[in-house]
Amino acid sequence: MSIFKNLKKVHAAVTADLVNDAPTLSALINAAAVKAIMGGKDSDEFKSYMAIFADNPEQLERLTVPKDGEPAYIAQMRAYIVANAICDAGTNAHTGNKVTSQIDGDPANNVPMVPEAVNDPGGVIVGRRPAGLKNIPGVHS
Fold this sequence. Notes:
Largest sheet: none
Number of strands: 0
Mean pLDDT: 90
Order of helices and strands: HHHHHH
Low-confidence stretches: none
Shape: globular
Helix content: 40-55%
Structural class: mainly alpha
Distance between the termini: 11 Å
Strand content: under 5%
Number of helices: 6
Radius of gyration: 14 Å
C-alpha cells in the first residue's frame, strides 16, 4: 500500500482505539514519535518510527533519506509525519495531517514514485518498527 494510505489507515486505527476507550495505539505512536524527534532524522529511532508507514525498502528510504534536489515539501511532509504524532490523539491533529499523496512521488517535480507493493523479505522493515507497532491491525494486515 502507499505511504499516504498507510498514514490514513494508522489514523483510522488510532481513532478506532479511542472510540473503544483503549488509547494504547496512540500512546505507542506518540512515544515512538518523541524518540524519533529526540534522536534526530539520522537516528535509529527516526527510522524505526518511519518504518510504521512503510511496506517496502523504497518507501522507507523516501521517509528517511533526503535526496539532493528534492522539493522542500518532501522534507516538510517527513517532519509533519513525526510532529503530528506528538499532539494528543484526542485533538484534531493526526499523523497524516498536512501530508499529501505527493509523499509517494511527484513525477512533475522529479520525485519518482515509490512502489505500493508490500515487499519486506526477511521482515527487515517490520523488525525495525517499534515494539507494539510491528503489525497494526487494519494497517499491516
